[in-house]
Amino acid sequence: MVDNRTRVLLILPQDVLDRARVLAGRATTNFKLPVSLQIVLRALIDEGLKRDDHPALLANIEGQAKAVRNSRRVAHRAGNKRTTPKR
Length: 87
Hints:
The chain has three helices and no strands. The protein has helices at 14-31, 37-50, 55-83. The chain is mainly α.
Protein backbone atom coordinates (compact mmCIF):
# COMPACT_ATOMS: atom_id res chain seq x y z
CA MET A 1 0.00 0.00 0.00
CA VAL A 2 1.25 3.47 -0.87
CA ASP A 3 2.07 5.92 1.93
CA ASN A 4 0.60 8.82 -0.06
CA ARG A 5 -2.70 9.14 1.83
CA THR A 6 -5.55 11.61 1.85
CA ARG A 7 -8.50 11.62 4.22
CA VAL A 8 -11.98 11.62 2.73
CA LEU A 9 -15.39 11.90 4.33
CA LEU A 10 -17.72 9.45 2.62
CA ILE A 11 -21.44 9.58 3.27
CA LEU A 12 -23.23 6.41 2.20
CA PRO A 13 -26.80 5.15 2.39
CA GLN A 14 -27.28 2.61 5.17
CA ASP A 15 -28.06 -0.23 2.75
CA VAL A 16 -24.79 0.31 0.85
CA LEU A 17 -22.86 0.36 4.11
CA ASP A 18 -24.60 -2.84 5.25
CA ARG A 19 -23.74 -4.59 1.97
CA ALA A 20 -20.10 -3.54 2.32
CA ARG A 21 -20.05 -4.89 5.90
CA VAL A 22 -21.44 -8.21 4.68
CA LEU A 23 -18.72 -8.33 2.03
CA ALA A 24 -16.08 -7.60 4.69
CA GLY A 25 -17.45 -10.45 6.80
CA ARG A 26 -17.41 -12.88 3.88
CA ALA A 27 -13.85 -11.84 2.97
CA THR A 28 -12.75 -12.31 6.59
CA THR A 29 -14.20 -15.83 6.57
CA ASN A 30 -12.77 -16.75 3.16
CA PHE A 31 -9.27 -15.37 3.71
CA LYS A 32 -9.07 -16.16 7.44
CA LEU A 33 -7.71 -12.63 7.86
CA PRO A 34 -9.32 -9.58 9.41
CA VAL A 35 -10.86 -7.51 6.60
CA SER A 36 -12.14 -4.11 7.67
CA LEU A 37 -14.88 -2.05 6.11
CA GLN A 38 -12.21 0.45 5.08
CA ILE A 39 -10.33 -2.24 3.13
CA VAL A 40 -13.52 -3.25 1.33
CA LEU A 41 -14.44 0.34 0.43
CA ARG A 42 -10.93 1.06 -0.88
CA ALA A 43 -11.06 -2.09 -3.01
CA LEU A 44 -14.52 -1.25 -4.36
CA ILE A 45 -13.45 2.28 -5.29
CA ASP A 46 -10.25 1.02 -6.90
CA GLU A 47 -12.04 -1.66 -8.92
CA GLY A 48 -14.82 0.74 -9.90
CA LEU A 49 -12.29 3.24 -11.24
CA LYS A 50 -10.75 0.52 -13.40
CA ARG A 51 -14.14 0.15 -15.10
CA ASP A 52 -14.65 3.82 -15.88
CA ASP A 53 -16.47 3.04 -19.13
CA HIS A 54 -18.77 0.30 -17.79
CA PRO A 55 -22.43 1.16 -18.54
CA ALA A 56 -23.70 0.19 -15.06
CA LEU A 57 -21.05 2.35 -13.39
CA LEU A 58 -21.86 5.30 -15.63
CA ALA A 59 -25.59 4.86 -15.00
CA ASN A 60 -24.97 4.82 -11.24
CA ILE A 61 -22.86 8.00 -11.46
CA GLU A 62 -25.54 9.71 -13.55
CA GLY A 63 -28.30 8.73 -11.12
CA GLN A 64 -26.35 10.02 -8.13
CA ALA A 65 -25.44 13.27 -9.90
CA LYS A 66 -29.09 13.88 -10.79
CA ALA A 67 -30.16 13.13 -7.20
CA VAL A 68 -27.65 15.64 -5.84
CA ARG A 69 -28.74 18.28 -8.35
CA ASN A 70 -32.39 17.68 -7.49
CA SER A 71 -31.83 17.90 -3.73
CA ARG A 72 -29.83 21.13 -4.17
CA ARG A 73 -32.59 22.55 -6.36
CA VAL A 74 -35.22 21.71 -3.73
CA ALA A 75 -33.08 23.23 -0.96
CA HIS A 76 -32.50 26.36 -3.03
CA ARG A 77 -36.23 26.78 -3.66
CA ALA A 78 -37.00 26.28 0.02
CA GLY A 79 -34.35 28.87 0.90
CA ASN A 80 -35.81 31.38 -1.56
CA LYS A 81 -39.29 30.95 -0.10
CA ARG A 82 -38.03 31.69 3.40
CA THR A 83 -36.02 34.77 2.40
CA THR A 84 -38.62 36.32 0.11
CA PRO A 85 -39.86 39.52 1.74
CA LYS A 86 -43.59 39.64 2.44
CA ARG A 87 -45.47 42.64 1.07
